[in-house]
Prior knowledge:
Oligomer: single chain
CATH architecture of the largest domain: Alpha/alpha barrel
Bound molecules: 2-acetamido-2-deoxy-beta-D-glucopyranose
Distance between the termini: 51 Å
Shape: globular
Number of helices: 17
Mean pLDDT: 96
Amino acid sequence: MHLSSFAAFWLLLATVVRAISWTATPFNPSSIPLAVRTPYLSAWLPQGSGAALNDAWATFWTGMIVGWAGFVKVDGAAYVFMGAPSVPATFSKATQKSSHFTSTQSIFVLSAGPVDLTVTFLSPVEPDDLVKQSIPFAYMAVSAASTDGLSHSVQVYSDISAEWVSGDNSLNVKWNSTTTGSILTHQVQLADPAVLTEINDHTQYGSAFYSTPNIEGATFQTGADVAVRAQFINNGKLANTLDTNFRAISNNWPVFGLAHDLGTITSATTPVVFSVGHIRDPALTYIIAGGGTQNRNLYFLSKFPTSAAVVSSFLGDFTAALSRAKTFDGQVQTDASKISADYASVVALSIRQAFAATELTLSKTSTGAFNMSDIILFMKEISSDGNVNTVDVIFPAWPIFLYTNPALGKYLLEGLFRYQATGLYPNKWSVHDLGSSYPKALGHNDGADEAMPVEESGNMLIMALSYAQKTGDHSHLTRYAGLLDQWTQFLIADSLIPANQISTDDFAGSLANQTNLAIKGIVGIGAMSKIAAILGDTAQSANYSSIATSYVTQWQKFSASTTGAHLTLSYGDSSSWGLSYNLFGDKLLKLNLFPASIYSEQTAWYQTHANAFGVPLDTRHTYTKTDWQLFTAAIATNTTTRDIFISAVKKWASDGQNNGPFGDLYDTVSGAIAVGFRARPVVGGHLALLVL
Ligand SMILES: *[C@@H]1O[C@H](CO)[C@@H](O)[C@H](O)[C@H]1NC(C)=O
Ligand SMILES: *[C@@H]1O[C@H](CO)[C@@H](O)[C@H](O)[C@H]1NC(C)=O
Ligand SMILES: *[C@@H]1O[C@H](CO)[C@@H](O)[C@H](O)[C@H]1NC(C)=O
Ligand SMILES: *[C@@H]1O[C@H](CO)[C@@H](O)[C@H](O)[C@H]1NC(C)=O
Ligand SMILES: *[C@@H]1O[C@H](CO)[C@@H](O)[C@H](O)[C@H]1NC(C)=O
């Protein structure tokens, strides 16, 4: 039932482009984040060209439904405000008046008769608090206000289904509930969990939690979707009964309901708060020296050893969390608005998505205690292939970590450095990723990872120096100096004339002598010159500096088009061109290896080569990348050109042509998504203009 009504809805939407009837600020994105915190806590409202909170089910980033319903009763009349449930009982649809998103919140106002409901979805972003950042939970807060000056009786209901615990709805689940004490909590998990595995990108172990404060007027119920929802619609409260007939997710759809009686209200009420989350332990397995593996546990477990403790703390923290979120949102808005309003809106939509691809972990010592000095941040390469800590996905995302808390960047690099320092990885260049399939960071001891030798070696050098410059912390440079030099030797041999290989834009295929890839390698050599200086080796620093400078001179001859108007895509192919976004590293690290004329020439070229939805990535295709366009915007020498890139990304993000989370690869002519990339952390690179 869920799936067929969902499919029918989208078929309808595909043929009828609807004008939205509510105010959408700052714009109407393809999909709005609802509960977006980790690779597995990822619930979105698929909007397409316009779907209200109660027009569609929330979906996982893949598009699979994660059942999440909401009803309100006003003076005895029931209205659905969230999801697309069908229930054999009488209710109407609340009317959406507005949708609004910030960096951490999505806020909807819907009118239900004479009452307006404000539904706030808060997915906290807590870059400076590792405990809070690692808690895999999000809030939904609901408040009601009379719109006619009269008093009204209001009750609020919400549930989640068991779709939050698996990517296969035919699997059996079991559940239980905490019904006494200060918090009501439903917990649901697979009957036969499979640790460290996924189906359809959903995790297959751990538990989902749906919770609310157990205040006066709170009720609960578990049972079949139609039965629990009808109970609320007919009675305005739940039956405080528990279904113990454990069964498959899709077998009479068990749902986990919670309700509050707000009593008689007039002016806006204090919100009732619900929390949704998913905890699994261990979070990942990680390869260690000698070839063994180590379990990694979510950081917050060091502070909250039980799920009851974390749920209680998280719910109790709502008011403070909202206040911190508003401060964070305000800071981002202030900083990004200095560029433009379009830019601020693109950045706001990017932040939850980028953070939600990451998980902060600790290991345990031999005595079972948490090792608080062993922090690794893991990142899932969502939607493209699920790799763990892909270097050329961390690199485009890097600006968001530099901007919010560079230490998070250090924790991302730590896993890659430590693995390669074991000597288990055989290649002389940097590894591409820590494991083919999240959450297994098992390395690539056969050296057969996706080979991007120049790309990844340059990326590691650039990010390591960037972190050190930003923080003054030289510990990675000191500890991993050997690896950094090894990668530099490779770049010295292979980056001026890059062999036939793929770059980060692997979907475009391999090519020899890529102009932009050579920039990456040369900037990497320049970075090592600075690193050597920091480490006190002035002779080595001078040598690498002169190599980088001489490479730039030679590269200028190889890479110029015969007209001199632009750089080529690859040496000697005069009519070819592309976005030379790797110059961003030269500016970020303040190397100034490349002459100003290169920047101004490229800036002028892009200005006259934009299609309706932006500037193509290169002459092989009409598609482009959002992250590389904004890296290029950050180094543009003309604000007209800069704003062409920014407006193009905003136009794509708001064009209503798809209904998935923010995609980073799309067609510049049609504005349609290309390849299907969505929900990827590379949108963290949209903050590139905030870090130069
Ligand atoms: C619910 O089940 C889980 C998993 O079996 C268990 O750890 C937890 O203690 C149970 N909670 C309650 C309230 O019974
Ligand atoms: C804690 O982790 C660090 C970093 O991996 C390691 O050097 C140290 O030996 C660990 N401490 C213990 C007690 O295991
Ligand atoms: C790469 O460029 C160099 C310098 O122009 C040239 O000598 C070499 O033949 C090119 N390689 C390929 C495969 O085109
Ligand atoms: C500079 O570095 C290159 C590459 O490692 C090396 O071959 C060369 O001998 C070095 N030159 C000096 C003067 O150290
Ligand atoms: C930027 O480009 C615009 C449009 O071509 C042009 O009018 C303007 O003079 C340029 N500004 C600078 C500072 O070069």
